[in-house]
Amino acid sequence: MAQFPGVPPPTAIEPQDPVPRHTLVRSFPILIIAVGLLVFCLQLGALYSVFWFRSRVLIDTHAPPSQELPQNVSLAARSLPRPIPDSSPGAPSHPQVPGSVTPKPPPELEQRIRALNEEALRFEAQGEFGLARKALLEAEKLNPNDPPTLVNLARLAEAENRQDVADPYWKRLVELGPSAGDPYWLAKHRISQRLAQSNRTQGPLFLVGTVQRSVFEKNALRERFALYLPIRLARQGHPIDPGRLALKLYFYDQLPDGRIVPTKAKLLVRFENPRPTWTQGGVEVLSAIYEADRSQRGEGQFYGYVFRIYYEGVLQDEWAEPAQLRFQVPYTTH
């Protein structure tokens, strides 16, 4: 081969050796193990998702149409006999005025009663039931027939699992008659519920705690607030299956013509604890954010809500604002 002056001769390119056979043999088992681990992880994830979905609490927010509430007609489960004074130990003994409410107290006294009730609710939210009871009993002394005070005393006793103390308060509210307003309807329902469960040795498994509402925005065009609904396990230590728990939370608006209809507002409902188990203190909080746009004509205003707790298809407890709304919303377990 001819060479030119100053130009180095070309370097021969040596062929590269193929990948050694022993390297392929070693990498093949590693590949098999990696694929096996991937399949195992996928199967484990699928199995976990099955148990996760089974343990999820069913939350229903699709409100059924409301029904008209006939005036002067009780929609309790059954007609109630006239309550008689309760003489069981621990039952309150105060004079009752059937069918009427104590005359409205002076403004300063009424303000004091309201302040004591608000103080009691704060104590109850902190778990200080003794202090809450003390404040409510003081309010009761100022006005023995004050409906909000009697409601709070009854619900506090139920939260303490002292139904024998709660029942007389509900009876006293029924004695006050429809002039007591929402507390009367609530008491009618609670008593009818107790009568329906009179053949049971144990009370409900879950109870609704003190509901709180935080208003973020409210004007002519927009309304936004959050609702916090504590769900209390009434029987501490009782085994529960969250998958058998069903919650019904229905929101309603009132149209300009007075009709009450299921809301069209945007709802975001979830537990504060993503995996509620009722093992930490026996209370889990369900939060609901209500966000409505009122820019279009004909849009209604927020009217109220109904919250019901079912376990294994059996109603455990419920709460509504206003109280009579519960009688306008049909009961469903599916």
UniProtKB/TrEMBL annotation:
Transmembrane segments: 28-53
Region (Disordered) residue spans: 79-107
InterPro entries listed in its UniProt record: TPR-like_helical_dom_sf
Keywords: Membrane, Transmembrane, Transmembrane helix
SUPFAM superfamilies: TPR-like (SSF48452)
Alphabetized Gene3D superfamilies for the sequence: Tetratricopeptide repeat domain
Presence of the UniProt keyword Transmembrane in the record: yes
Name of the protein described by the UniProt record: Tetratricopeptide repeat protein
Organism: Candidatus Methylacidithermus pantelleriae
